[in-house]
Amino acid sequence: MRVSRTGMTVVALLITLSGVEAGAGQLGQLGKVTEGVKKVGELRDLQVTDAEEQQLGQDVSARIRERYGVVQSAPVHRYVSLVGRTIAAASSRPALPWTFIVLDTDGVNAFAAPGGYVHITRGALALMQDEAELAGVLAHEIVHITGKHTIRSMQKTKAVQMGASETLSGNAALLDRVVAATYESIVERGFGREDERESDAAGVALISRVGYQPAALGTILARLKERNASSRERRGLFASHPDMQSRLDGIAGTITKQKLTGTVTLSERYRQAITYTPKPLSDIATVDAGAAGLTGSDSKAAPAPAPADDKAKKDEPRRRSFGLGRMMPGSGGEKSQAQVTGSGAARGVDPERDARGGSNPALVAVSISAADLQAFRKAGGLTAAGA
Ligand SMILES: [Zn+2]
Question: How far is the CA of 295 from the centre of ligand 1 (A)?
């Protein structure tokens, strides 16, 4: 893979890669293999500049906001942005134009889009009890962006194929396809396990560096697990979902191994800023897949059941339900795939993701100066740790 100076390499076409790797073990064929790798690279690589990553993120975010609506509250956006920017400033990509968006839905979820767009739902804020928990979830999403998982998740779907000489800039049709594929992989499928583990581990390290208690991410995930365990017994999936337990164990392990020592939680400041009441899972109104455009490619033009269902059936058992985007344990994940059959199971019904959203997709503008950020950190006993 080539990597440009300014951007990253998008692998659009993953065909024949496994064949090449299999051959790579045979020394005698090394010359041939190298040639093969080069040729494959020329076919499938697409340069994405930082500006193109921005464009992609902006368009994907617009889709997410169309789907769920945006809470039209400046104070709520200001508070979430202050917490988010405190963390982002200590991340490996502090200079991205970070944007924090509160989605108008009771479902508990968070979505990272490329280029610095972090979305968190009103339902997730309602479930949290202090600022450190919010910081943990935002940091997890921030790492999805700084680690470029958001780009990689789209690549893995193999949904977009492009020629070597194509670029996103000035190619509206290609951009549309990439936006659709990225939206689908972020909202519908979530990230892969390795990306989730990396986001959990790097996320707790990140919040601890600025002073927050790192265990807070585990605390909010455990509370979510508990809420869902008591709320939908008929599924019987939530209490013992292995992915969530493995994530909780992973977070605890990271804190011990890296000797993370942050202690700030700020429950009082959180309660003053966020006053939403959490809703039990059973009270969350949902919309059906077709109406919400949940299968991805075109929410307005596809009111019918998804043509992507067949593909989803194949891909989902492995990838579903393992992110903050899939925060809910058992939301169409391994167990439900194994135990439930029928058309509902194919998509993996997920009340959090399928939750009804608000109707106003407009961004809420927030202006935060360096002095504002400094004052916010100081008042909270936080520091401006570098990356
Ligand atoms: Zn995640």
Answer: 19
Q: What's the pLDDT score for residue 333? A: 37
Q: How far is the CA of 196 from the centre of ligand 1 (A)?
A: 5
pTM value?
A: 0.76
Distance 323 CA to ligand 1 centre (A): 4
Say yes or no to pLDDT of 235 above 90.
no
The answer, yes or no, to whether residue 304 has pLDDT greater than 90, is no
**166 pLDDT higher than 90:** no
Give the pLDDT of residue 177. Answer: 86
For residue 20, count CB atoms less than 10 angstroms from its CB and return exposed for 0-12, middle for 13-18, buried for 19 or more. Answer: middle
Helix (H, G, I), strand (E, B) or coil at 110: strand
Burial of 378 (0-12, 13-18, 19+ CB in 10 A): exposed
H-helix or E-strand spanning residue 46: strand 45-48
Task: Measure 19 CA to ligand 1 centroid, in angstroms.
Answer: 30
pLDDT at 54: 92
Please report how the helices 149-157 and 131-146 are oriented relative to each other, as an axis angle in degrees rounded to 10. 60
Q: Which residues contact 168 (CB under 8 A, 6 or more apart)?
A: 46, 48, 52, 55, 56, 174, 175, 178
Nearest to 282 by CA among 352, 362, 381: 352
Percentage of residues of the chain with pLDDT beyond 90: 48
CA of 268 to the centre of ligand 1 (A): 27
> How far away, in angstroms, is 326 Cα from ligand 1 center?
7
Name the percent of the chain in helix, strand, coil, to the closest 5: 55, 5, 40
CA of 211 to the centre of ligand 1 (A): 22
Contact 281, 231 (CB under 8 A): yes
Helix (H, G, I), strand (E, B) or coil at 113: strand
pLDDT at 158: 63
